[in-house]
Amino acid sequence: MPHRLDVLVCSGAACVSNHTADVRDALQSAIEAHGLSTEVRLVETGCMGPCELGPILLVYPEGALYIRVTPDDANEIVEEHFLKGRPVQRLLWEDPAARRIAEEKKQVAFFERQEKVVLSNCGTIDPEDLQEYIATGGYEALGLALTERQPEELIQIVLDSKLRGRGGAGFPTGLKWQLAARAEGDEKYIVCNGDEGDPGAFMDRALLEGDPHAVIEGMTIAAYAIGAAKGFIYVRAEYPLAIRRLEIAIDQARASGLLGEDILETGFAFDVEIRIGAGAFVCGEETALIASIEGQRGMPRTRPPYPSDRGVFGQPTLINNVETWGNIRHIVLRGADWFRSIGTESSPGTKVFALSGKITNTGIVEVPMGTTLRELIDEIGGGIPDGKALKAVQTGGPSGGCIPAQHIDTPIDYESLKELGAFMGSGGVIVLDEDDCMVGIAKYFLEFSCDESCGKCVPCRVGTRTMLSILERITDGRGTLGDLEQLQMLADTIRSTSLCGLGQAAPSPVLSTMKHFREEYEEHVQTATCSAKRCKALIRYEIDRAACKACDLCRKACPVEAIEGTPGEPPYTIHESVCIQCGRCFDVCPFDAVRIESGKKKQNEVEG
Amino acid sequence: MKLEDLRKIRERAEKDISLRRGDARVNVVIGMGTSGIAAGARNVMSAFLDEIGKRDLADTIVTQTGGRGLASSEPIVELHIKNEPVVVYGEMTDDKARRVVAEHIVNGSPVSEYVIEVRD
Questions:
Q1: N or C end: fewer C-beta atoms under 10 angstroms in chain B?
Q2: pLDDT of B52
Q3: ipTM score of the complex?
């Protein structure tokens, strides 16, 4: 008997953290209790996208989308919906813009405005079931490549598609393939770069967890095209779920003759191995990643020679990012013309983005290149919460920059972002609102690059540290206008003299914020104030005497006992000399009596 | 496994996940309100599912709806076939369900003696 309901349970990392397994177990028991086991099937899928709203259930054939489901909801869903056919309204996605409950996924703008190519299987199939991947046309592209295409034809298709590397820099993928194919060596290697390290980036994780076979298939097609027999998938240890699903997928592919000695009985041999990284950011740089695969310390080296000539173990190596690999099977099956029909002329195809920061729909989305930031943030992302104003969009992580709100109609492609001093990067999009301090944001990213500098070259090791100490001085209210000049000079030097991309791009967050938000830097150094009220040294917490009800919550919340008062006897007071500006009193006060004031601590109290 | 074998697996696997495509040709809607269930709608649904499974009809889905206020005719089943008027069957049973699958869904001719309403 066929199932009449497919209940897809999002099991991406974010939903797993939100205890999706408990929801699944509760549903399973309720389904059994109602005698529906033969009629209703539970399917665990990869990330569906709106991570903020997890755990998520998608029920077919209706396409009903349940959000923030708890184990306690399981019985009601099974009894009302699965048994009686009445979807549980209170758990359905309510479109905040349309102010209506979406009866089906199709009605939700978050999904409708996207175009899923790379992520087409993410959230719709069980990534641990090879049959489901095959049902979506999986391994058809590999079969076609091995039986009906010559290696040169495949390289030509990728060249014609104008696919560009999705890891960030946007190098033409076909060219990389061609160089690796032409290079001479005893052996050749295929590498998947899954060392996703930007703060706020989780696109590769979603694809590896949600559709691991797509990455394996892309790599196998490339292996045939350039003549490689061995591949490595480099994933960081922080992605245990991605590693587990990759392991399962590799085992399944081997068992079915889709990896190994005689793939699809054509005589072609290729196999892949997972290499688990320890989480050093620099290992996302290709030469450092290769060193790490070889068992060396993950440090970059000068290029040339490029990996296509001398890569893993000194042999020609083709290295692409996870998302790039995910595009290959679609291009081989549907052709270069189809691919170029999506996106823009110079940046064809789609791009996966991870939306985070001050945005309503946090999560994973995929849109055609050329989509504007406004569409991405307002229409798909649901805008900025709490009625706040957009200030800037940070793209490209620590190697990228901030795009100010006035450029929100910029189309997203490699060139447009570069012109604004930002960077496509791997796809992390962090939305900043009026409450964010741009100097503080620049400092945050520089601190990251400084921590992650491998230390091999001086400009990066010493230069980023020096820039960071200047920024710390500025956010402490001790900066001078000369500091801004020095930042600029250091940034220029680091950019032009660092060994690898990490160092060369490390000053970008500072440069882009100095370019677009110079007035904020000047405010910090000239008046020692932070108008966003974020820099701890430049704000004071005070209690409004009239608003205080002496409820004692702030005193209890204060971790350093800086607040004094007696319950029922307002007002309370904060001792500035003790206060560490953690903001807990501000968060807990039910009467909005705690105020953040701009300006440094009063000198006399610091001394007293 | 050869490419032909892969394609055979795909054919079978596609049917297995056809519910998720949302492009079914036939939708069998069972009235599962209180009176429907009391009159035996569960058995009718099981009969439909069983017969659809036996005949391997991948383009047919079974869904439910609440009561329609026609309690005397329960169990009520609506047959929605793409580009055709909706046919409503009343007082359904296990056997009647199997006949509807064979004659209406497969052969395309409604079982007129069970029909209580036809609407566009």
A1: C
A2: 92
A3: 0.87
